[in-house]
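Fold this sequence, please.
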Amino acid sequence: MRLWVQRFFVLALYAGVASAFYVAIDWGRNLQRTAPEIFLGAAPLVGRNFRDGWDWRFGWGLIGAGLVAAAMVVLAARGWFETARLRVVLAVTGGAAGAFATLLALTDGRDGLFFGVEEETEYLANLRTAPPAGDFVRNFVVDINEYSVHVRGHPPGFIVLLKTLDAVGLSGSWPVMLISLVSTVLLPIGVLVAVWAIAGAQWVRRSAPFLVVAPYALWMMTSADAFYSALGAWGVAFVALGVRRDGRGAAWLGALGGLLLATLLHMTYGGAIYLVLPTVLVVAGWALRRHGSLGAGTSATVFGAVVMAGLVTTMWFAAGFWWFDGAEATRHEYWEGTAQFRIWNYFIFANLVIALFAVGPASFVGLTKLRDRRLWLLVGGALAALMIANLSQLSKAETERIWLLFYPWLVIAGAALVSKFEFRRLTLSANTLFAGWIAVQAVSAILLQASLVSKW
C-alpha cells in the first residue's frame, strides 16, 4: 500500500510539473502582449527578440553537438564510465562539456559565441568608459548609474578582471569568450571532485555524462555566469575535500575554498545565497564526525576558509568597495528597472519552470529517485539555495542565466536513474538506461538550441 501511495504522489508531481509548463508558457505569452516591458519574448525564457524569441533554425553546430552527445551515449552504453580511470573520466567530461556547449553556440555562427560578449549591455562595452581599476572600484557605488545593465547588477569584480587582462595585452572579445570556454571545461570537473569527496567514485562515474549534455549548456558559452559557476564549483570542491581530510591539509584546502568563494561574492551577489551549499557540507561534516564517517577536517576547513575569505573581503574594502553598499545600490537599480514590471505571482513559479528547462527532464526525474544521503548533501544544498533565491524576489526571469550557479548540482541527481529497469517482460540493463537518459538530456538541449534565440 505504501508503495502505491508513493507512486501516486510521484505521478501527481509529474502531472503538476507538466501543467506548470503549460501555464508558464501560456500566461507568459499573454503577459508579453499586454505588458511588453517585461522583455521576455520566449516566455518564460528570455529571447533576443522580445516579441517572439522562438525561431526554429538549423546550424551545423547542432550536428557537431549531436556527435558529442552520441559519443557520450555510446560510452555509457558500453560501460566506459564504469571502467575507465577516474582521472580520465574527469578530463573527458570537461573536454566534452566544452565541446558540446561551444558547438551549440555555433548554431548561430560567430554571433552565437560573441553576441553575449559584444552586446552593448554587457561588461566589455564598459571598458571604454570606465576609469582605471582603482578609481572604478573606489567610486563604483556612487557612479553605478553610468554603467550598463550587467555591470549595475553585479559587484565590480568581473570588470576588474577584464581591465587586468586588457593591461597585459589580452584585450578585445576573444579573451572574454575564452574565459567562458575555460570555465565551461572546468565547471563539471569541479562538481565531480566535490561529488567524489562527499559521495564517492561511483557517483562521479554516474554523474559525469549528465554534466556534459545538460540543457543549461546553452548559456555557458554566452555569459559571464559560466565563470561565476566554475568559481563556485571549485570553491565547493575545495571545501568538500577539506571536510574529508584532517590537520593542516584541511586548513589549506579550506583557504583555497574561501579564496574562490569570497572572490565569487565580489563577482555576483548571487554568491551570497550560493554559500548555502558549502554551509550544508560543513554542518553535515560536524554532524557526521561523531560517527567517524566524514568530517574529520571540518573545523580546520572552516578556519582556513573564514581567514582567507576575511582577507579577500578586507582587500576589496581597502580598495574602496564594501559588499553590502554595493548590494544595496544594485537592489535599488534592480527595482528601478525591468523588475518593477515583472509580477511576482507569475515569476514565483515561472522561475522554477525555467530551471526545469535548464536542467532537463532526467534531472527532475532523478530528484524523485535519489536516495543516497551523501549525494543529497550537494543536490539538496543547491536546491535549498535555489529556493531561497526564488523567494528573495531578486530573481524575476532571466534565471536560465542567473541560476547557472545552482544547475550543475541539480543535474547530478540524474545519476540516480542509473539502475536496472524491469516492468513485466521489459528488462533494460543499467548501462542501457544510463545511455537512454543521457540521450534524453542531449535531445532536450539540442531542440532548445534549435528553437530559441536566447538573449545571451
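The radius of gyration is 22 Å. The chain has 22 helices and four strands.
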